[in-house]
Amino acid sequence: MKILVINGPNLNMLGVREPAFYGTRDYAALTAFILESAREAGVEAECFQSNYEGDLVTKIQQAYGVFDAIVINPAAYTHTSIAILDALKAVSLPAVEVHLSDVSAREPFRQISYAGMACEKTFMGLGFEGYRQAILYLAARYGEASR
Ligand code: DQA
Fold first, then answer.
1. Which tens digits make up the pLDDT trace of 77-92?
2. Which of 14, 73, 93, 97 qualifies as a FRET site for 87, CA 20 to 30 Å off?
């Protein structure tokens, strides 16, 4: 099983960016954590990060026929991007939404998630662990071992 893990804008600034919300580990540590989580779960993972909405849309489109599932933290585009929602619906791959912080306890403008409308599940407020939970969920539900 191949899982595409997508991270949106400013997540390349992890470690520097608002550590009270996002922790002190950097993006390289996150990708290492994701790849290790995938290995443990017996699946393949590829990580992709972009600060550009169109690049995120294109990457989701390119996942069609290549990946079996998507884990996505669209970051700020979570709350604004109908284009990312439409791309997820277009490829119709099983998708899980992740947020490092507990967005439900933050500002009102973070209370809507467009991408989440195309996702089966959301893990939030768990830091890096949310990505591991998302991978484990997808591996259990759609991985080779589930067949
Ligand atoms: C975030 C939460 C978003 O509201 C914010 O814009 C981010 C990161 C998170 O992982 O907690 O950039 O998606």
1. 999 999 999 999 999 9
2. 14
Burial 26-52 (b: 16+ CB within 10 A, else e): ebeebbebbbebbeebebebbbbbbbe
Q: What CATH code would you report for 2-142?
A: 3.40.50.9100
Q: Which two tokens stand for residue 9?
A: 């804008």
Domains in the chain: boundaries:
2-142
Measured by CA distance, the residue closest to atom 9 of ligand 1 is: 99
**Which residue is closest in CA terms to ligand 1's atom 1?**
75
Ligand 1 first shell, C-beta below 6 A: 10, 73, 75-76, 78, 99-101, 103, 110
39, 77, 93, 141 from 59: Cα distances, Å: 22, 15, 13, 23
Measured from the Cα of 99, ligand 1's closest atom is 10
Can you give the pTM of this predicted structure?
0.97
Q: How far apart are CA 107 and CA 88, in angstroms?
A: 25
